[in-house]
Write a structure and sequence with these properties.
The structure is a single chain. By secondary structure, the chain is of the alpha+beta class. It is built from 14 helices and 17 strands. The strands form 4 sheets. Strands 2-1-5-4-3 form a 5-stranded antiparallel β-sheet, sandwiched between helices. Helix 2 runs antiparallel to helix 3. It is found in: Cell membrane.
């Protein structure tokens, strides 16, 4: 789907970038954090289970040492050896002595003990109680107890910890530590020594362990029966076989199960001392609560950030799009030819700087277009003037072959009449005619222009009837420089027409000079004739500044001039540009100097 509109595009792109960034950060943070939290919780539960097992083993080992202290008592060993046909006094004496010497001190050291009792293979039994109701047993009861303990203890005298009690009404609330012992006279194990303690006392060991409101610990024996559980109704019952198998397979790793109703995580540790498994149980909802909080916080913060970012993206898009729209409108007006600048906002940034540059560009383009139009108009006028000048030259080409043939006929007659003057005049006129009737304004060398002036002086000498020389001061290296055709001779002719109104005298001089200065090639025609008044000079300069061809102007004598000074100036401009042309300097009664300025172009080889 294509998105139209600059603002919408910026908004869409910003939204995509923000959503992708927030999603990636949120997802990766959640995955990494959840993994780390699960690992931390598992390590914490593993540490709790390990510490609980350690403290429980220390607790049980303490009672084991109590039993060991009883094993070294001689009266206990002798009691085991009493025959079944004992004397009642002997039974009473041993019972009293064992209590005073061993049992009472044991109860004092371990007030949490509930009972201590001895059962021999000869059916002799003695029972001691601590803060519980005393029980009495007949021979049948003693036999049942003996059979149970023999079935649940090892023949090598190893200590056994059983979820069992002989005290009525205390079922599943007591733990019994029991082992087989020998008598005084035989190394054979012929009796049983047992102590009972309250299983609830184990919970006192774990008070420093914080498992939260819904977490707890319980103990399972190697047969899968509850030794301890906060729910006293479960003590003595068997755990579900599926859970017991999963517990054994998990070993020391955590696992989840819902056999207790809600889904919980379990971590177990097995006691090397008692072969019990101490299990830490915590609900998954509590364990995952920090993850839920992180997820909720991430979503809330992400949503807030997204909304804020969308607002900023919208404002940012508008701040860019609005000036761009203004630029777009300005360009449309420019396309229509309306060179109008666009309004600038009060603040300054890169976009506003672009608008400033656009206004400057429009202004300069407008000025440039105006200049181009003016130049085009000027070029059009120049082309028209050039055509006019060429038309003027065409007017001179009135059957030139007929005129050449006529001049040749005159030369023949002059030769027959032996008149060298006529022949010289006609030859000079023929050259000047051939040189003048070319219609183009192409450039010619200075040498050719001087040659044309020389032939003009030949004709002039015969007209005025006296010799006259022009001082040519142009250095030889400038003779091959180029200049506009037919511009030097009109200036020389102008001198003879206007500079010497009272006739040509010997002190009159005409000087032609030239040179190069600052890239300008100049040729001057200077005389010491009558000169011009300041008013006339100003008038002539104003005519030169009009940059127009003269069309048969009439001089003071009422004669219609030819190309003239004005046309020389304009012909130079049409060839080289309006920065070039003719400059006139003159003072009354001191002479006149006319200077042609042209570019110093490379020399032209003839």
């Amino acid at each position: 789907m294509k998105i139209r509109g600059f603002t919408k595009k910026i908004f869409a792109y910003f939204l995509i970038v923000i959503v992708l960034s927030l999603s990636c950060v949120g997802i990766f943070s959640y995955i990494i954090t959840s993994g780390e939290l699960e690992e931390m919780v598992e390590n914490q539960m593993d540490q709790i289970a390990g510490n609980a097992v350690h403290h429980t083993d220390l607790y049980l080992k303490d009672y084991e040492r109590s039993i060991v202290s009883l094993l070294t008592n001689r009266q206990i060993m002798e009691f085991i050896d009493l025959p079944a046909t004992r004397e009642e006094y002997d039974y009473y004496l041993y019972r009293k002595t064992i209590r005073e010497v061993s049992v009472d001190p044991l109860f004092i050291r371990n007030p949490k003990l509930a009972s201590v009792y001895l059962i021999s293979d000869k059916k002799n039994a003695v029972y001691y109680y601590n803060n519980v109701n005393e029980q009495s047993f007949n021979a049948e009861d003693i036999q049942k107890q003996r059979d149970y303990f023999l079935a649940n203890t090892t023949a090598n005298g190893q200590l056994s910890i059983l979820n069992h009690t002989i005290i009525e009404g205390q079922e599943n609330q007591m733990l019994t530590i029991v082992r087989r012992i020998r008598g005084y006279t035989s190394p054979e194990l012929s009796g049983l020594l047992a102590i009972e303690m309250r299983s609830a006392d184990l919970s006192a060991l774990w008070k420093g362990i914080d498992l939260g409101k819904y977490g707890y610990l319980f103990i399972i024996d190697d047969k899968g029966r509850y030794i301890y559980h906060p729910d006293g109704l479960k003590v003595g019952t068997s755990v579900p076989k599926a859970f017991f198998d999963k517990l054994n397979q998990a070993d020391s790793h955590s696992f989840a199960d819902a056999y207790e109703g809600d889904e919980r995580m379990y971590v177990s540790r097995k006691s090397e001392f008692s072969d019990w498994q101490l299990v830490v149980s915590m609900p998954l909802r509590e364990l995952r609560k920090p993850l839920s909080n992180i997820r909720s916080t991430t979503l809330v913060v992400g949503l807030f950030t997204l909304i804020l970012a969308m607002l900023l993206a919208y404002r940012f898009g508008k701040s860019i799009a609005k000036p761009v729209q203004t630029l777009k409108s300005g360009m449309r007006e420019t396309e229509k030819g309306n060179w109008a600048t666009i309004p600038l906002p009060p603040h300054r940034d890169e976009i506003v700087e672009l608008m400033v540059r656009y206004n400057l560009m429009v202004k300069r383009l407008s000025e440039a277009v105006d200049r181009v139009v003016q130049v085009e108009l000027s070029n059009s006028e120049i082309r028209m003037e050039r055509q006019k000048a060429e038309f003027q030259s065409l007017q001179l080409q009135i059957n030139p072959h007929f005129m050449y043939n006529t001049l040749e006929t005159i030369v023949c007659y002059a030769t027959i009449q032996d008149s060298e003057e006529i022949s010289e005049i006609v030859k000079a006129l023929a050259y000047m005619l051939r040189y003048s009737v070319q219609t183009n304004l192409e450039e010619i060398t200075v040498a050719n222009e001087l040659k044309h002036v020389m032939y003009y002086l030949v004709v002039l000498r015969h007209r005025i009837g006296r010799e006259f020389e022009i001082d040519v001061a142009i250095k030889p290296e400038y003779l091959l420089h180029v200049m506009v055709r037919l511009t030097l001779q009109p200036l020389v002719e102008n001198v003879f027409q206007h500079a010497f109104p009272d006739g040509l005298e010997d002190y009159h001089i005409v000087r032609i000079d030239g040179g190069v200065h600052d890239g300008i090639f100049w040729i001057s025609v200077e005389d010491n004739g009558a000169g011009m008044s300041e008013a006339k000079l100003t008038q002539l300069r104003e005519k030169l500044n009009t940059n127009r061809l003269a069309d048969g102007e009439v001089d003071e004598a009422g004669k219609k001039g030819g190309i003239g000074v004005l046309n020389v100036h304009r012909r130079i401009q049409m060839v080289y540009g309006e920065q070039y042309g003719l400059r006139i300097e003159s003072k009354l009664e001191q002479g006149t100097k006319m200077i042609m300025a042209m570019p110093a172009l490379p020399q032209k080889l003839e």
